[in-house]
Write a structure and sequence with these properties.
mainly beta; 5-stranded mixed sheet; about 40% strand; elongated
Length: about 850
């Protein structure tokens, strides 16, 4: 009788067949017939005989029964070492005949351009000098396919090729046909009534493919991203009062004709709810629940906001912990009135389980130091477990932008009242090298090269170096930030800078500024930040000689005597016999500019602070919220300049109808002198389209009235501005194009010049009320009066304009085009109806 079994290729089971003369009966080997010692092995070349025998485990009495033989056979197959295994009984002995798998000599990849060999080698299981296995090779081909699909190439084909070599060796070649990226051809929303598809596309991360998609990757189909978009849509509706919302499904379908995916989100919006009441309860006898009311961000009558509710719970729970109730848990409860569409909210503060943190284990940080991660926690080992503080730490770690993913999990500790926090991280590149380019009607063509590192040396430090070179602006800067000064949540920053502004069509002079500024930043709340700073910089002005040769004072030997017609007529001087044409007659720069040039370099030393309040829903593309920035600087802590400068800038965004966003922009500032020091013209506010669009840079406010000079803008010590703007999408264009339009109306004023108006060194004396000479009286050498000092327009004229704009969130950076028409203006203001600006990093 013969027990015959044969196993080939990738089979993980064995088909056991017993042959008899009549061909149908299965016969088992007697349990007492065999021992391990009676097994002989044939066909093995690399694997030892004893190794093969070791897979057959004897039963009771040291004998091999049918079950032990079957188990040994399966165990040999599962090793992957053998291509074929056969067991036969010959003369009372078991003969195990094996055909060993080949050994892989080398592994190569061909056709892969988008994914490097090293990445593919790390993913596959087959290795050089390892055992060749056809099932493993097929599995490796599938792994390579998945790598390409994760990068959006669903049209990939991977073909393994086996090249046999001598000595039972093979070379393994994976031929990859990468195909093109499989993009998102369309994104549709079904069931959305309150918000248009255009608005909802702003909420999700997935984007439709367009002509510029090659510059980004959001249009590539990623099932994980689509699933995350479902949650983003749900949270968006919950934030805006739709407490019953359900994102029923996110359906994806591949369209062979379009060679891309069609994504459809099915939404059940429900009704919008408002807050009917807000109450507070507690089961902790010594805690006054009503005292938590000031930490609630939910107000009666407002639209229900799940995000505000979450933040309220977090702040209340943290406050309870501060008061000594370390285990307090705040649980919100919402009772809905389906007919009135209102929610009654109750915050219940209860004593939670007494659980302590045993350990905090950090995993996945190969570069970032442990302390950089741990300092984002407001708790440590041994503290009471507080879920609100853990969630805050997770949010802070994500905001660092050091990691691809952050997840904090809990595991049971050594006892029932202990937990272990597991911080799972996946690091990403934090260095950037960028080349920026742009053009604006103010600064002309501009280019910048910069290198920055957000996690310098793995210590959480920020460092950046940048060099700028442009048509009218040049310079360089170095920046450094330590976000945790002396282990406190205080950011220390240091900026070193050099800037050079060249003369252009808007200003007749150039400036060079060099200095440094240390600063301290404090986060007072999530929406409120304070910055303290000190600045010291040296500034000098430059002018060509022909703009600075005025001299009406013959006693001044530093300049060539160059009298004005008024001085000449009063003193009987023949202008034709002098070596000049008189002050201003050859195009002099304004008096305060020439005085600044003569004074040489000026050192400014100032201290200041900024308060920033920010509730914007999106800092890059806001549609809702308030941004207020208040600044004050006090110059005169040493140096040559003394002043107090204050400025405020407020922007309020509000969604209106049909994806139209309203923007109200208010701004104002004031410059005051102190200590008897005269204000420099360079320290005055200079305004143009940054205040009222439709005017040239430095085109608004007090201006030198001399008709023969450069008529420089002098600036003012006070300004105000107000603007109302409507931003709207172009509904006929795909959302991914990033274009939207705007219409606006601006109003503002700049006034009250308080800089120098006279200069004894050159004999120029200001006479208030004097009318400057006209072109006619000057050329005819008539007596123009005594207007030798600075004569300027200082009226508080309200400038207004209306205009339209085109805003493009392009892959090359944000670009904006504005065309505005002034409605009211000062007599000597300069108009520039079209303005363009933009730039990027690439």
């Amino acid at each position: 009788m013969m027990l015959g079994m044969r196993v080939r290729g990738a089979l993980l089971g064995a088909l056991i067949m017993v042959a008899a003369p009549m061909g149908s009966a299965l016969v088992s080997v007697p349990a007492s017939a065999q021992t391990v010692a009676s097994i002989s092995v044939e066909g093995n070349r690399r694997v030892e005989v004893e190794t093969i025998r070791s897979y057959f485990k004897p039963g009771p009495g040291g004998r091999l029964g049918q079950a032990q033989i079957d188990d040994g056979l399966k165990a040999l197959i599962e090793t992957g070492l053998f291509q074929d295994v056969r067991i036969n009984q010959v003369g009372g002995r078991l003969v195990v005949t094996v055909v060993e798998n080949a050994v892989i000599g080398r592994i190569a990849f061909e056709g892969n351009k988008k994914v490097k060999d090293e990445q593919l080698s790390a993913e596959i299981q087959s290795k050089p000098r390892g055992t060749f296995s056809r099932p493993m090779v097929q599995s490796d081909a599938q792994r390579i396919t998945e790598i390409y699909r994760r990068s959006g190439r669903y049209d990939v084909r991977v073909t393994p090729e086996i090249i046999e070599q001598p000595n039972n060796r093979v070379d393994l070649i994976f031929t990859v046909t990468e195909g093109t990226k499989t993009g998102i051809k369309s994104i549709e929303f079904v069931g959305n009534v309150a918000y248009s598809a255009y608005r909802l596309k702003d909420v999700i991360k997935t984007r439709e493919s367009n002509l510029l998609s090659f510059l980004g990757g959001a249009d590539v189909y990623d099932p994980d991203r689509v699933e995350a978009d479902r949650d983003l849509i749900r949270r968006f509706y919950l934030k805006n009062g739709y407490a019953d919302v359900q994102v029923v499904a996110a359906l994806t379908e591949y369209d062979p004709e379009k060679k891309g995916f069609l994504v459809t989100f099915k939404i059940d919006e429900g009704q919008q709810y408002r807050v009917a009441s807000v109450d507070f309860q507690t089961s902790i006898a010594t805690l006054d629940a009503a005292s938590m009311r000031s930490f609630s961000r939910v107000n009666v009558g407002s639209v229900y906001n799940a995000e505000a509710l979450e933040k309220s719970v977090e702040e209340m729970q943290i406050e309870a912990s501060r008061r000594g109730y370390a285990f307090a848990v705040v649980r919100p409860r919402g009772d809905r009135n389906f007919e009135a569409h209102t929610v009654s909210i109750v915050f219940a503060v209860d004593e939670g389980p007494r659980t302590y943190i045993e350990r905090i284990n950090v995993r996945g940080n190969t570069r970032t130091r442990d302390y950089v991660i741990r300092r984002e926690f407001d708790l440590s080992e041994g503290d009471a477990y507080n879920r609100a503080l853990v969630d805050r730490a997770e949010r802070r770690l994500k905001n660092l932008d050091f990691f691809k993913s952050v997840k904090i999990l809990t595991e049971p500790g050594s006892s029932t009242d202990r937990v272990i926090l597991i911080v799972d991280l996946e690091e990403k590149s934090t260095g950037d090298f960028s080349v920026s380019g742009g053009y604006s009607t103010t600064d002309g063509a501009l280019a910048e090269v910069s290198i920055s590192e957000r996690n310098f040396l793995g210590r959480g430090l920020y460092a950046k170096a940048a060099v700028t070179y442009g048509q009218y602006a040049r310079g360089g800067s170095l920046s450094f930030v330590e976000p945790y000064l002396l282990d406190y949540r205080v950011a220390l920053g240091l900026d070193l800078f050099y800037r050079e502004q060249l003369a252009n069509s808007y200003i007749s002079y150039g400036t060079k500024t060099a200095g440094f500024s240390p600063r301290l930043g404090f986060t007072l709340r999530e929406d409120l930040a304070l910055q303290l700073r000190y600045s010291i910089y040296q500034q000098e002005i430059s002018l060509p000689n022909n703009l600075a040769n005025c001299n009406n004072n013959p006693a001044n030997s530093l300049l060539a005597f160059n009298p004005s017609p008024a001085f000449a007529n009063a003193n009987g001087i023949d202008l034709t016999s002098t070596n000049g044409l008189g002050c201003y007659f050859d195009g002099e720069a304004s008096l305060p500019i020439r005085r600044e040039l003569q004074s040489g370099k000026a050192l400014t030393s100032s201290v200041g602070y900024s308060l920033n309040y920010n509730t914007l829903d999106n800092n890059k593309n806001p549609t809702d919220g308030l941004l207020v920035d208040w600044k004050q600087d006090f110059a005169g802590v040493g140096g040559d300049v003394k002043y107090i400068k204050s400025a405020i800038d407020a922007k309020y965004y509000s969604p209106l109808v049909a994806d139209i966003v309203g923007l109200i922009h208010l701004q104002g500032g004031m410059l005051n002198q102190f200590g008897g020091s005269e204000l420099r013209m360079l320290d005055h506010f200079q305004m143009g389209p940054n205040l009222v669009r439709g005017f040239a840079p430095n085109g608004i406010g007090p201006r030198d009235l001399n008709p023969f000079g450069t008529r420089d803008a002098l600036g003012g010590t006070k300004y105000w501005g107000a603007s109302f703007e409507l931003q709207m999408p172009f509904w006929f264009l795909p959302k991914e194009v990033g274009l939207k339009g705007s219409v606006y109306a601006d109003a503002g004023g700049l006034f009250d010049y308080k800089g120098p108006t006279s200069w004894a060194q050159t004999g120029e004396v200001n006479v208030p009320g004097c009318v400057p000479p006209t072109q006619a009286t000057a050329t005819t050498n008539a007596n123009p009066g005594t207007c030798l000092g600075l004569q300027y327009d200082n009226g508080n004229v309200v400038r207004t304009s209306v205009g339209v704009g085109l805003i493009w969130a392009s892959p090359f950076g944000p670009l904006r085009f504005d065309y505005a028409v002034p409605l009211t203006k000062g007599q000597f203001d300069r108009v520039q109806e079209f303005k363009f600006g933009g730039g990027t990093s690439f």
